[in-house]
Amino acid sequence: MKKLLIVISLIFPVLVSHASTWHYFRGTIGTNLDIRMLLNETDGKLTGGYFYTAHGEEIKLAGSIAGNKYMLDEYDTSGSVSAHLVFTLIGDSANGMWERVRKKKHSLPVALSSVKDILKIDYLHPHPIDFRDDSIVRRSKKSHYDITVRYPQIIFTGDAYASELFNASMKEFAFRQATFYEKDFKSWRRDQEPGDAEADSMMETTISYLDVTDTITNPYAPLISVIFFSNFYYMLSAHPNSYTTTKLFSTGTGKMLSLGDLFKEHSQYILRISDFCKSDLVKQVRVREEDSTDVADTDVGFVQEGAGPKPENFKSFSISPDGITFHFDPYQVAAYVFGDFEVTIPFSKLQDILRTDSGLDEAVKR
């Protein structure tokens, strides 16, 4: 019996030391900086992060909890402590202070509410996610431009940290797209010299525009894959143009993933992707050409450069059950007249160099 008690006493601390609890908060820093915060508590230690709903980029936190008092350090992208965050939870409400520790010190009040229905575990396992489309619309009759940027938002029941982080990051992307075009257009308009009657007339009657649409190619946790197609035009230009932006969001980590996050270290994945894409693109270019003689030779050179083994050539990619699709904008691998191109590489062609912990298997095998 004594031996059994000794064994139990040795095992029990190990069991309780691994117990963890999630703490989810919504609230503000300062008077109107809306935030969401998610913390994991294990043995009195806290890890996690928070984000401003206006930006959608998570800021790392670590610290400890004593009773109902939370004491946290905030870390910048270099891994250095940039601020302290201390608050006390009474019931479902918490109040405290955020204090910057570097450069010029600055402090702001913190007011938070505890949220019980985190739903985090749902976002670690494969399941379909419902979305709705929101949009940012800006129009100017005076300056003759029209901006519409559509972006996806997760529909969820209750409050889920991953959902809100995804929604904030999509909204911020849309805002940045609209704002960049608006500022760039106004700058371009100011640079136009008056005096050409035909040009002046066209500027008063032609609408410049930015139109962004979104497509979700993988609407399943733990990886959400989104493509943004941006079509734009500046008055007096020879023709409209377009470009593609892609986002791959991990609902398990709350992070946007790059292409490299899907592949094993030192796997030289760019070389394999480049070789596959170049071979496929040359065939596509030749099919699109009316004759496959001199023009084809020129466009093969486009392909060699635009799909060569450089990471920047493959920054636009999406995932689906069919594989990883790479998106090539006009001018990247062929002349504008041939439009944009896509190449899908089946997972079977990359299986030996894909990471097993990225969530890719779970997201596409359902």
Quick overview:
The protein is an alpha+beta fold.
How would you characterize the overall build of this protein?
By secondary structure, the protein is an alpha+beta fold. It has helices at about 1-15, 160-190, 195-205, 270-290, 295-305, 360-365, and strands at about 20-30, 35-40, 45-50, 60-65, 70-75, 80-90, 95-100, 105-115, 125-130, 130-140, 145-155, 210-220, 225-235, 240-250, 255, 315-320, 325-330, 340-345. The strands form 3 sheets. It has an 8-stranded antiparallel beta barrel. Strands 9, 10, 11, 12, 13, 14 and 15 form a 7-stranded mixed beta sheet that branches. A 3-stranded antiparallel beta sheet has the order 16-17-18. Helix 4 (about 270-290) runs antiparallel to helix 5 (about 295-305). The radius of gyration is 26 Å and the shape is globular.
